[in-house]
Specification:
single chain, mainly alpha, globular
């Protein structure tokens, strides 16, 4: 399939920070995708919370399965819009590499602990993971991804007027044009993220019995999909109707994004990806009607799932785990593993805080819980 004139093109990539000899038959973005899949940070996503802690059930989403679902949706949209599917997939797979354990509870705890040192932002941490923290190559830190993949990671949500400290620090060394939009492929990955988490959170919430199919079916965006599912399979039980319904909601959202994006692209008439970057608004977007219909769904999930008492109870415990880990290790870096201890410097310093933050952000849920147990029980060998 030929790419649209405004697609990011592998043959005109701005390259990598550390030049590398030409490799194999893969495009630069295919190589980026493969490097991300083989990264340690990517494997850790298997045991990082999406909403439910990993041990609460084998069938709930994790950060890993979420990322795979985002990648599948991103590839579908990119294909329909004649964009580079491999770049969209790479960005989808990498977008959550910086998430700490315990989902947003862990992020909130780290952000609070790091307030004196610039705070914590998972998007900046994703960039840090692929440019500094991964240690798989002899010649450089990080994964040495292409400029286009790094650009998409840094600003897939739009231009950055006040970038997080690490993004600003990296941009000073390897400018990512933070004042412009990212290419259309990065915008596709960002919308695919929204589509994936809204729908799989519905699925997980139903599986956890936080709400019923009838309650969800009252939402404007879901009502028609549920009616279609019931018409197609009138005798199906609820546990089979739910995935039939969710499949239809995903399809409706994807169709809407594709139609609205085609309309915006036609109005802009971009001749190259730089026209996409310089545009005054994103070219990949929901229509106004879909964006409005999405609001009640997000409000419903916020109230009935993200703030459900069972989820709140688990998140409160998770925050305390992260807070305690940070406090202990920032005040006692001698308890860090040797490779981290060497970087941390003196207890209580800004440098020590940054290193401890990176250490904790890289933990899986289960490793964080085990570290918490070891540090709190003097009878457990370290």
């Amino acid at each position: 399939m030929s790419l649209a004139p405004h697609a990011v093109r592998p043959e005109t990539s701005r390259g990598r920070l550390y030049p590398e000899a030409g490799g194999d038959a893969r495009s630069p973005f295919q190589r980026d995708r493969d490097r991300i899949i083989h990264a340690t940070a990517f494997r850790r996503l298997q045991y990082k919370t999406q909403v439910f802690i990993y041990h609460e059930g084998d069938h709930f989403r994790t950060r890993l399965t979420h990322s795979i679902e985002v990648a599948q949706i991103a590839r579908s949209i990119a294909r329909l819009l004649a964009l580079d599917e491999d770049l969209a997939e790479a960005l989808a797979l990498a977008h959550d590499l910086g998430h700490p354990p315990f989902g947003h509870a862990g992020e909130d705890a780290l952000n609070s602990a790091m307030k004196p040192h610039g705070g914590f932002d998972h998007n900046a941490q994703s960039l840090k993971a692929v440019t500094l923290l991964e240690a798989r190559y002899a010649g450089f830190d990080g994964l040495n991804l292409t400029w286009e993949t790094l650009e998409g990671l840094a600003k897939h949500n739009g231009p950055l007027r006040r970038p997080a400290p690490y993004i600003a620090q990296y941009d000073a060394k390897h400018p990512l044009d933070l004042h412009t939009h990212a290419g259309a492929e990065a915008q596709v990955a960002a919308l695919a993220d929204d589509i994936a988490y809204n729908n799989h959170d519905l699925d997980d919430g139903l599986r956890a019995r936080l709400f019923t199919l009838e309650e969800v079916g009252a939402l404007p965006l879901v009502r028609e999909a549920l009616a279609q599912a019931r018409a197609a399979a009138p005798d199906a039980p609820a546990e089979r109707l739910a995935p039939e319904m969710i499949r239809r909601v995903i399809n409706a959202m994807v169709r809407d994004v594709v139609a609205e994006s085609r309309r915006r692209i036609a109005a802009l008439a971009p001749a190259s990806v730089d026209d996409i970057r310089r545009a005054d608004r994103p070219v990949i977007a929901f229509s106004d009607a879909m964006a409005e219909a999405n609001l009640p769904l997000r409000d419903f999930l916020f109230t009935r799932m993200y703030r459900h008492w069972r989820v709140n109870r688990t998140m409160a415990k998770s925050k305390r785990v992260v807070q305690m880990l940070f406090s202990h290790l920032h005040g006692g870096p001698q308890m860090l593993p040797p490779i981290w201890r060497a970087r941390a410097g003196d207890a209580g310093t800004a440098q020590c805080a940054l290193v401890v933050c990176d250490y904790i952000a890289g933990m899986t849920d289960r490793y964080a819980l085990e570290e918490h147990r070891r540090l709190n029980d003097p009878d457990i060998p370290g």
